[in-house]
Amino acid sequence: MEISGFNAYKCNSIGLTGGMDQSWEVIRYKNNKAIDSVGGIGAVMVQSWQSDRVLDPRIEVIDNLFIGESVLEDCPQDGDGGYCYDKSKQAYSAMMVSAAGNDVHPTMVPSMPYYEPMGSGHWEGYISVSNNEFRHFASTTRTGKRNTMIKNHPLPDHQQIQYFSNNKFVNCDQSNFAHISAPKAGWAGISDCGNFPCTAPLNVLWEFSSNTFEGGNKVQEFEMTGDFQIIANNPGFAPFAQNCVQMSAWNAYICRNDKFAQIVFQSLDSDKMDRSMQPIYIQKAGTGMNNKMNAFMDHCWDGFYTCQKRLQRFVGIMETGAGTVTTLEYTGTPPKSQKFTLEKKGELVLGSTVRIHFPSTAARQLVKGG
Amino acid sequence: MINYNPWNDILKTYGPINQRYCGENRFIGVQNWMEFYITTEKPCIIEIRTRDAIMVNVRMEWTYAEFFADGGTTKFVDRIGASLGIHASEIKIVSVYEGSLIIVYNIFSAFDEPSDLERLRQKQIDIIATGNFNIGAPIIDGSVREKQIVQNGVVVADGYEPIVIYKPTVTTDNDNNNGGNNNGSSDNNNGGSDQTTRIYNVQTGTREQFINNNGGSRNSDIFDGVKVITEGNNNGRKYDQMQQQKLQQQIAAAKAKAESDKVEVREAEQRLQTMRVALITVVAVVLIGLTIYGMVKIVNSFGHPKQVTEDKKYVEGETEIKVLATDENQTTQYDATKDFNTIFNTQTKLKLEQQEEQENEMKLQKAMSKRQEMQNDRVQKKQVKDQMENRKAARLAEIQSKKSNPTDQQMQ
Predict the structure, then answer these.
(1) Greatest C-alpha distance within chain A
(2) A202: which DSSP letter?
(3) pLDDT digits (tens, 9 = 90+) for A142-168
C-alpha cells in the first residue's frame, strides 16, 4: 500500500498515518509533506493477528519532505490571540508494526487515537526511512517546547529497529535531533505491564547511514557522519555499550557501534498468555550489562477489566560480536518450548552465544528454522 | 534438529560453542546450562523444545580417568546402543562425573513415539535388573526415570528377582595407605578416615564373575591394585556386616513384595483370560455378520443384470460423447449469439402475431356489438312507430264513432 501526495500542515497530532489493514506486507509513505505539525508522519502498520509468524513486514518512508515551524504562530499574543496550541513537535514519529489496530473505517470515535496500535507488537518488522529531506528545524518551538526531527512514539511492546539512510538535513539545529521517550510510568499496573512498565522504549535502536547534514552535524563533539546509532537511555545497557556518548537532552545515547541487535524470543507453551516469566535479564559476559525486560502489555479488555493475558514475548537490545556470550537470566521457570531470533538487517552478519540456565534436567533439543 | 557439539574428553563435557554456524549448541550437564549460537543471518530462527526421553542414571565401579581411557562417551554410547538395539544418535549423554563414576544419559525414541519410548524403558529396566547391561563396568546403582533399579549392587526393581549384581565392600583411606592388616588405625570414630572418601572395592569372585559374564569386554586393568578387605580389618568388616544385614533386609522385603506381585499377576492373568474370551466372541460375531452381509451382496449382484445394461449404456454414451468431441466435429464453432437472435426473433414474431389476433378479435367484437346495438335501436323505433300508429288508429276510430252517435248533450 502506498500513501503518497498528502500534505500535513499544522496538525495537532500525528499528521499522517495509515496501514491499519492487515492484508499489506509493505506500507510505503512516499512524496508527502509534513509541515509544522505536532506529530508529522507517524509510520504505523498492522500486520497480522498471528503476530508470532515471521512474515517480514516492511514500512518504507521515502522521498518525503519535513519542514519545521511556519510563520503562523501556534500561540499568538501569548494566548490572547484567540487560540493557543503549545505542544512539543516532531517531524517523524518512529512507531511500530503491531498485530492489531483501530478499524480502517471506524464507525464511532475510537477510545484511543487512530494511530495507536491495539494489539501486541509484531515479532519483527523492517522500518526504513530514506531519501527524505528535513528543513529548517530549530531546537525549540517559538513557545520554547522541544522541536525534534526524530522521536519515538512511546509504545509498550516492540519498537522495531529503524534504518535511516540517505536523508538530508538542511538548516537544522542538531541539539534536538532526536529524542527517545522513556516508558510511561502509568504502564506499571496489573491492568497493563505488571510491577514495572513495559520495556520497549528502553530497547529502541536506530541505525543511521549515509545521511547528509547541511548547516552542522556536530552534537557534543560527536560528528554525525558515516554510520552511527542512537539507543535509548537504558540504565542496564547503554552505559556499558562501547563507543557511546550520552545525550541527556535526547534521553538517549549516540554511538558508533555496529554490533547492536535486538533479540526477540517468546514462549511457545500453551500457557504463553498466562504464566509470567518476567523480568528476564540480558547479561553480557565480562561487562556490567543487565538489561531488564518485561513481557508484552495486556491488550485485551473483558468488560471493565483487562483479561490478565500478556504475551510472554521479550525484546531486548544486546551487543553482539565474535566471542561474545550473552546470558538470558530467567527469574521464573523457563518455558518448555521457546523461539529466538536476532534482529538486524544488513550485510554484516552479527551473532552471539546465548546461555540459558534450566532448573531441570529435562531432555531438550534445538531446532533451527522454526 | 541440530545435535550438541561433539563431546570433549579434555573438558569432560560437550565441546564449547565456536560460533561457526547458526544453531550450534551444547548442553552442560549437572549445571543444566544450554548454550547456542544465534546470528542475524536469515533465516536463523531457533527453537528450544523439550523432548520426551528416558533419563537413566548409572553409577559404576570405574574411575573417571579409566572411563575416558577406555573410549569415553563415544564407546559408552555405542555399548548402550548395542545393548538396547538402537542407534547411537538416540542416546545423549547428559553428564559424566566422579563418585565412583556416575553417568547420566537420555534415551530417545527415533520416531518420538510414546509406545516406542515405553518399550525402550522396559527394555532398559530389564537388562539392568537381570545383570545383562554391558556398559564396560559393573553397576553399583542404577535408576531409570528416577525409579531405582539397582541399589548398592542389588536389584531392587519391582517384579525382578533381588539378585546381587555386584557386591561392593568398603575400606578406608587409611587401609589403603597402610596397606596393612590389623593395624587398627582405620577407626572412623577417631577421625583416622573419612566416610566421604570411602573407596568401593570388589570381591575377587564377583569381579571375575562380572568379567566372565560380559565376555571380558571390560578393561581388567582397572582392578589392579584393588584392595580386598581382610579378616583383620575390624572396622571394615563391621561396616560390611552392617551392609550385609541391610541388604538382607532389603532382599527379604523385595521377596515379600515379589510374592504379593505374583498373586496380583495371577489375578490379572485370569481377568485377561476372561477378556480374551469375550473379545474373541465379539470378533467372531462381527466376522459372521460381515460374511453374511457379503454373501447377500454377491447374490444381489447376480440378480441385477439391469445394472450391467446400464453400465453398457453409460460406456456407449461416453464413447459417443468422445466421438462428438473430436476435432473434426468441432470445426464449426458454436455461435451462441446467432441462436439467441433466432430464438429472440421467433419469440418476438409470435408475440406480435398474438397481439394482432387479439386486436382483430377485439375489433370484430366491437363491430358485432355495434351492429347489435343498431338492430336493437331499429326494433325499438319500429315498436314506437307501431304504438303511435295504433294510438292514431284508435283516436280516429273514437272520433268517427262520436260523429255517428252524437250524445244527449249535443242533441239538446
Answers:
(1) 73
(2) G
(3) 888 889 999 988 888 888 899 999 999
Q: How many CA atoms lie within 13 A of A95 on its CB side?
A: 31
The residue ranking higher by pLDDT, A265 or B331, is A265
Cell of residue A55, nine digits: 512474515
CB atoms within 10 A of CB A170: 14
Exposed, middle or buried, B83 (CB in 10 Å: 0-12/13-18/19+)? middle
- Quote the CA–CA distance of A313 and A264 in Å, as a whole number: 7
* Non-local CB neighbours of A231 within 8 Å, separated by 6+ positions: A180, A204, A205, A206, A237, A238, A241, A244, A252, A253, A255, A260, A317
Are A363 and B55 inside 8 Å of each other by CB? yes
Using left for φ > 0, alpha for ψ between -120 and 50, and beta otherwise, residue A63 falls in left
Q: What is the pLDDT of residue A205?
A: 95
What is the SS3 assignment for A41?
Answer: strand
Interface test with A, best of B33, B47, B55, B57 (most A CBs within 10 A): B47
For residue B170, what are the contacts with CB-CB under 8 A and spacing of at least 6? Answer: B198, B199, B200, B201, B229, B236, B239, B240, B243
* Subunit contact B50:A336, Cβ cutoff 8 A: yes
Q: Mean pLDDT of all residues in chain B?
A: 75
Alpha-carbon B291 to chain mean position: 32
Rounded CA-CA distance A244/A254 in Å is: 5
CA distance B47 to chain A (A): 4
Residues forming beta bridges with residue B39, ordered by sequence position: A351
Tens of pLDDT along A2-48?
A: 889 998 898 888 888 877 666 677 888 999 998 988 888 776 666 55
The model's pTM? 0.65
Cα–Cα distance measured from residue B33 to residue B16, given in angstroms and rounded to the nearest whole number: 12
For chain B, what are the domain ranges? 1-49, 54-265, 347-401
Separation of alpha carbons A254 and A236, rounded Å: 16
Note the pLDDT tens digit of each residue in B318-358: 666 565 555 454 444 556 667 677 777 888 888 899 999 99
Round to whole Å and give the CA distance between A256 and A24. 34
Let me know: does A200 contact A156? Beta carbons within 8 Å: yes
Chain B residue at shortest CA distance from A343: B40
Q: Is A365 within 8 Å of chain B by CB?
A: yes
CB contact under 8 A, B45 and A356: no
Dihedral pair phi/psi, residue A267, rounded to 5°:
-75, 145
Per residue in B272-313, pLDDT (tens digit) is 999 999 999 999 999 999 999 999 988 887 754 544 455 566
Q: Which ipTM value was assigned to this complex?
A: 0.92
Question: Hey, what amino acid is at A192?
Answer: D
Confidence of residue A226 (pLDDT cuts 50, 70, 90): confident
CB B17 within 8 A of CB B5: yes
